[in-house]
Amino acid sequence: MNLGSDTPDQPSGPSWDTVALPEGQEKVRAVQEMFDAIAPRYDLVNRIMTFRLDTRWRRKAVRQLNLPKGSIVLDLASGTGDLCVDLQRVGIRPISMDLSFGMLAADRSGSPRSQADILNLPIGDQSVDGATCGFALRNLVDLPAFFNELGRVVRPGGRIALLDVGIPHNRLVRFGNGIYFGKIVPKIGGWLSDPAAYRYLPKSVAYLPPRDEMLRTLQAAGFSNATHHQLSGGITQLMLGTRDQ
Fold this sequence. Notes:
The chain is built from nine helices and seven strands; from the N terminus they run H-H-H-E-H-E-H-E-E-H-E-H-H-H-E-E. The chain is of the alpha/beta class. The chain has one domain (24-242): Vaccinia Virus protein VP39 (Rossmann fold, 3-Layer(aba) Sandwich), CATH 3.40.50.150. The chain has a seven-stranded mixed β-sheet, with helices on both faces. Helix 7 (171-192) runs antiparallel to helix 8. The longest helix has 22 residues, at 171-192.
């Protein structure tokens, strides 16, 4: 995630300070408004916040996608098009889809793009060679429905690569990441952009199910060989899978 300007009239957005995170349509609305607001400086904050590790994570996801040149891949919740650029770099043809018009307007990849609800993709069955999603799983209101959509639109033998924040297994790494992610990242975001949006970031991890549960749901959706990988000590997680024949 990333944010907007340092000026006094920056968008306030949802407060995210309540005890309970929003659910259902309230969550959809709040997340969409937040990403519309933070789109102009999304990339800048990401680079600073992750010390540019985000570029390494995306490129690894694209390598592990392991699809031939010319493959058509959906980049879902595509944001400003970072993954699209990395896909293009290896000869893959990405299609960018995001619910946030602000993010799509800031997309600099030049890929075909569409404002769409990625829980109800506007494309036919088995019509693409693969799909990617970068750091957005926790923002969805129905993760099993999303996995089922992936199973519907990806052709047999096609591949998926899904990135999101993670919870490190190592206690020491988990402790350090908790301090950085929970205390320092909101301050960085507050200085550079909308403070409320960056208070949401550490809280939003609570939306993610345990990795074993996500893997079981992916496998049930048609990716029976789905695997889970910890990146950078577990601060990021990558799930990979091949659509069953």
